[in-house]
Amino acid sequence: MDSRLIGEDVEVRVHADELQVWYAQGQVDTLPRLRGSSKHRIQYRHIIDLLVRKPGAFENYRYREELFPTTRFRMAYDQLRQHFTSSRAIKDYLQILQYAARLSESAVNSALGRLLQSGELPTLEAVEAVLQLSETPPVEEVHIDEVELTAYDHLLDSEQEVVPC
């Protein structure tokens, strides 16, 4: 949910498979409904800035597995752990996760896939380099001929009588 709603009264509508969060007569979020005990859902986007500032908290975080949005993120973390010390691997991974939260999770996920497939180490710099290479090309300039407005004058000059409604 949006952090601007902290301290505000919201309405939560409970449905069979989802929860709808409403504020000021508008739906602001939809969450999957989790059933059973010990169920949780953590949005890494809500806590990533705190974890980047205190990377040591990641190691013993109770819901750490929720901080791997896809298997590629987990594979990238595992590969960083193989090449660096634990603290350096965590720091690098959290920077990648923060970049995904700010830019696009799917774009970073694709970049991680390319890096993992090529055998490159998935550091933040490598992810940024892949994304810069795969940026969309600039939009082509389109030329539109100027419209001849005098053509509309002929409509006004017509002798047909317009009947008001």
Task: Explain what you see.
With 165 residues, the chain is mainly alpha-helical. It folds into 2 domains: 1-37, no CATH class; 42-133, no CATH class. The chain contains 7 helices and 3 strands, in the order E-E-E-H-H-H-H-H-H-H. Helix 1 crosses helix 4 (86-102). The radius of gyration is 26 Å and the shape is flat. The mean pLDDT is 86.
Order of helices and strands: EEEHHHHHHH
Structurally, how many domains make up the residues?
Answer: 2
List the uncertain runs.
none
- Separate helix tally: 7
> What radius of gyration results from the CA coordinates?
26 Å
Reported for the largest beta sheet, the result is: 3 strands, antiparallel
Structural class: mainly alpha
Number of strands: 3
Note the overall shape. Answer: flat
What is the terminal separation in angstroms? 51 Å
The fraction of residues assigned to DSSP E strands is 5-15%
Helix content percent band: 40-55%
Can you give the mean pLDDT? 86
Strand order, largest beta sheet: 1-2-3
